[in-house]
Each structure stands twice: as structure tokens, then as C-alpha cells.
Task: inverse folding
């Protein structure tokens, strides 16, 4: 089969055109793959950032709940004949100190109490030492002295009028009161 020169030229032209068309489709496809990959990376980065933001928001909300619970704790109990507050109360008192430091107009009163065992004078002094221990801790952790009033009631204002150890435990305390 013999082809004329013009037919050969036409076939050659069609073949080259087809290769060129495939080549450009391949480049376009590879550009699309690159674009899809880049948008995939962007989507992954965006999703990672969203997850990190959600985690930060959950952590902040949890911190707010913890702070609110700590600030709602306003009574601190003491062991018999001891004026140092318990180690377990440190974190709660730290939240109170930070709250006072952040709110310079806020004022509180520390009311020291004791159980009925001991003389009236001794219990007044013990209630004062208990309140003073908490006062000093609050000041060291950011509160200002002029924000805090301190008073001791000794055994005069019991939380529980019973005469057993459970009642005595309820009476050995310092209360944070907002005047």
C-alpha cells in the first residue's frame, strides 16, 4: 500500500498532534495532582490547627471549672491545736490569691475559729494564728494586704454545737467571707 506524500504528512501531523495532546493532558493531570496534594496538605494543616484550637478551648474550660470550684471553697479546716493549714488546701488558696491579685477592688475577711477545748483566750489566739497563716499565704501568692481583713472568733461561733470529735473538726476552721 502506497501513501502519497500528503497522506504521509497528514498521518505524521496527526501522530505528533496526538502526542502533544497526551503530553499536555499529562502535565495538566500532574498539575492537578500537585494542586490536590497541596490542598490536601492545606486541609490537613487546617484540621490540625482546628483540633489544637479545640484542645486549647477544652483545657481553658476545664481550668475555668477548676478555678470556679476552688473559689467556691471558702472554709479551710485545721487539725487539733494546729495553726498551719493543710497541704491539700494550698492549690485552692493559690486560686484565691490569684483572684485577689487579678481583682484589686475585691475584699475578703478571714474569720478564724477554734473548737471549745482550751481557754477562751487561747482559742482566740489560735483562731488568729490560723487566719494569719492563710493571710500570709495569700499575700505571698499575689494578694494585697489591704484587700484582706482578719478576725478571730475563737470558740464563740461554732459551726456544730456538738461535743464530739466530728463537731470539733467542723469548728476548727478559717472561713473566707466577702464583706
Result:
Amino acid at each position: 500500500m502506497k501513501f502519497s506524500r500528503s497522506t504521509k504528512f497528514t498521518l505524521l501531523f496527526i501522530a505528533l498532534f496526538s502526542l502533544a495532546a497526551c503530553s499536555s493532558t499529562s502535565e495538566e493531570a500532574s498539575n492537578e495532582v500537585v494542586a490536590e496534594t497541596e490542598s490536601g496538605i492545606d486541609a490537613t494543616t487546617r484540621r490540625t490547627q482546628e483540633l489544637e484550637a479545640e484542645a486549647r478551648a477544652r483545657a481553658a474550660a476545664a481550668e475555668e471549672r477548676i478555678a470556679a470550684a476552688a473559689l467556691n471553697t471558702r472554709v479551710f479546716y485545721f487539725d487539733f491545736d494546729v495553726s498551719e493549714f493543710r497541704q491539700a488546701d494550698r492549690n485552692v488558696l493559690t486560686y484565691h490569691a490569684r483572684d485577689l491579685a487579678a481583682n484589686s477592688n475585691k475584699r475578703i475577711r478571714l474569720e478564724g475559729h477554734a473548737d471549745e477545748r482550751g481557754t477562751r483566750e487561747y482559742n482566740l489566739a489560735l483562731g488568729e494564728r490560723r487566719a494569719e497563716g492563710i493571710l500570709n499565704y495569700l499575700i505571698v501568692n499575689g494578694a494585697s494586704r489591704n484587700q484582706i481583713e482578719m478576725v478571730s472568733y475563737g470558740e464563740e461561733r461554732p459551726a456544730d454545737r456538738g461535743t464530739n470529735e466530728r463537731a470539733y473538726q467542723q469548728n476548727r476552721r478559717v472561713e473566707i467571707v466577702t464583706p
